[in-house]
Automatic annotation (TrEMBL):
<dbReference type="Pfam" id="PF13191">
    <property type="entry name" value="AAA_16"/>
</dbReference>
<keyword id="KW-0067">ATP-binding</keyword>
<feature type="domain" description="Cytochrome c">
    <location>
        <begin position="176"/>
        <end position="289"/>
    </location>
</feature>
<keyword id="KW-0349">Heme</keyword>
<keyword id="KW-0547">Nucleotide-binding</keyword>
<dbReference type="InterPro" id="IPR009056">
    <property type="entry name" value="Cyt_c-like_dom"/>
</dbReference>
<dbReference type="InterPro" id="IPR027417">
    <property type="entry name" value="P-loop_NTPase"/>
</dbReference>
<dbReference type="GO" id="GO:0005524">
    <property type="term" value="F:ATP binding"/>
</dbReference>
<feature type="region of interest" description="Disordered">
    <location>
        <begin position="1"/>
        <end position="21"/>
    </location>
</feature>
<dbReference type="InterPro" id="IPR041664">
    <property type="entry name" value="AAA_16"/>
</dbReference>
<protein>
    <submittedName>
        <fullName>ATP-binding protein</fullName>
    </submittedName>
</protein>
<dbReference type="GO" id="GO:0009055">
    <property type="term" value="F:electron transfer activity"/>
</dbReference>
<keyword id="KW-0479">Metal-binding</keyword>
<keyword id="KW-0408">Iron</keyword>
<dbReference type="GO" id="GO:0020037">
    <property type="term" value="F:heme binding"/>
</dbReference>
<dbReference type="GO" id="GO:0046872">
    <property type="term" value="F:metal ion binding"/>
</dbReference>
Length: 402
């Protein structure tokens, strides 16, 4: 069939042609937006799940809903060891700009922009005295693209918790004036540095008490709730958690058949059976196998034989782009640890069993395990056990030569 008309889209964060199986999350977020706009109390949201389940896609879909309700929105992707100041300032700058055209008081908007600029320019490396270690240095070379002078005495203390709270409060006031809100979307939230994550929780806590219309919508790996709870004990009540998992059979079929039907193509039942077995319900895999099956098929309907012929190509692409790229990031010691995990099975495995299989003391393997967690390759599934953040990663490792 015509590869140009192939509707499937396996890509990092790329929206599939049919966002199947996420209606509950989308409907609930509509309620959240409406309640906040009406001054009703609501919690910020956190999406968690393995790689490839569509967290980023859903995060972007939720942002589109907020934009559709005329909210101000901004999005950041957290990175390890990167302070939140610049990305949050840039995201809120975007959000305020989205609302500024409808605001009747340009001076008020300029004031909020000046606070954002002050927050961005304040050096984050501050000691206990509040004195910046860079205070004696020349002015920052980097400047945010905000054409107003930086405010003084607001969101510029150097204490990230104080500054985030003041920044969020002032930014939210623009939403209050317009009867809407501001939503800040944070992808890879588990990579937010611990002090900044604690400050983010504290700022959200303050906003929830004052009813200010600004919410955080975060997405991250399964360990994110534990990280939030460790940063602030009340975070368990501060966020509404949604675990994003693989699709059930009906939704997986819909993700394949709906785009095909729009192109006048159908699937035989046995082809859908084969595709579900291969993809195991994971949205990224569904797109990958769907794409190669389409290209392999000569005519409609796409059959199980087409899937069989195409599957090796999908597996080869996943081995390089989805699995291999992550495996290459690991050191030899980390690879040894992961191979030991894979030999023990596909689910969570006790760290003691990993150590036993390697003939090592558990404490000697802690550096490798902790580094793998920081790299987002494994997570602490429960006390004393670890699991892969990437579905089918154990199968991939077992298929590789030692």
């Amino acid at each position: 069939m015509d590869p140009i008309r192939n509707p499937y889209a396996p890509g990092a964060g790329q929206r599939p042609p049919e966002l199947a199986g996420r209606d509950r999350e989308l409907d609930q977020f509509d309620v959240v937006l409406e309640r906040i706009a009406k001054g009703r109390p609501e919690r910020s949201l956190v999406l968690t799940g393995l790689r490839g389940v569509g967290k980023t896609v859903l995060l972007n879909a939720l942002r589109s809903q907020a934009i559709g309700r005329l909210w101000g929105t901004g999005k950041i992707e957290a990175r390890p060891e990167q302070t939140l100041r610049r990305p949050v300032a840039a995201a809120l700058h975007m959000a305020v700009r989205e609302l500024a055209a409808r605001h009747r008081d340009p001076e008020r908007v300029d004031y909020v922009l000046s606070v954002i600029k002050a927050f961005a320019l304040r050096d984050g490396d501050v000691g206990r005295t509040g004195q910046s270690k860079a205070a004696a240095k020349p002015a920052h070379r980097w400047q945010p693209g905000i054409d107003v002078p930086a405010a003084r005495g607001r969101a510029d203390s150097g204490d990230i918790e104080i500054d985030l709270t003041e920044l969020f409060t002032d930014a939210a006031s623009i939403g209050t004036d317009l009867g809407v809100g501001i939503a800040l979307f944070v992808d890879e939230m588990q990579d937010v540095p611990a002090p900044d994550l604690s400050a983010l929780c504290a700022a959200c806590h303050e906003l929830s008490q004052t009813g200010a219309p600004l919410i955080i919508v975060g997405a991250g790996l399964p360990q994110l709730p534990v990280l939030l709870s460790s940063s602030k004990s009340y975070s368990e009540r501060l966020f509404r958690y949604h675990r994003i998992d693989r699709l059930e059979r009906q939704a997986a079929d819909q993700a394949l058949t709906a785009p095909a039907q729009r192109e006048g193509v159908s699937f035989a039942v046995d082809a859908l059976d084969s595709l579900y077995d291969a993809a195991d319900g994971y949205p990224y895999f569904i797109q990958a196998y769907g794409k190669v099956a389409w290209d392999a098929a000569l005519t409609s309907p796409i059959t199980a034989e087409d899937v069989k012929v195409a599957a090796p190509e999908a597996e080869a692409e996943l081995a390089v782009g989805f699995f291999g790229s992550r495996y290459e990031r690991a050191t030899p010691a980390e690879r040894e640890y992961m191979r030991a995990m894979a030999a023990l099975g596909d689910g969570p495995v006790p760290t003691a069993d990993v150590a036993m299989s390697l003939g090592r003391r558990p404490s000697s393997l802690s550096p490798a395990r902790d580094s793998l967690i920081k790299k987002g390759l494994v997570y602490a599934a429960e006390r004393g056990s670890v699991a892969f953040t990437v579905p089918h990663f154990g199968h991939f490792l077992r298929s590789q030569p030692v």
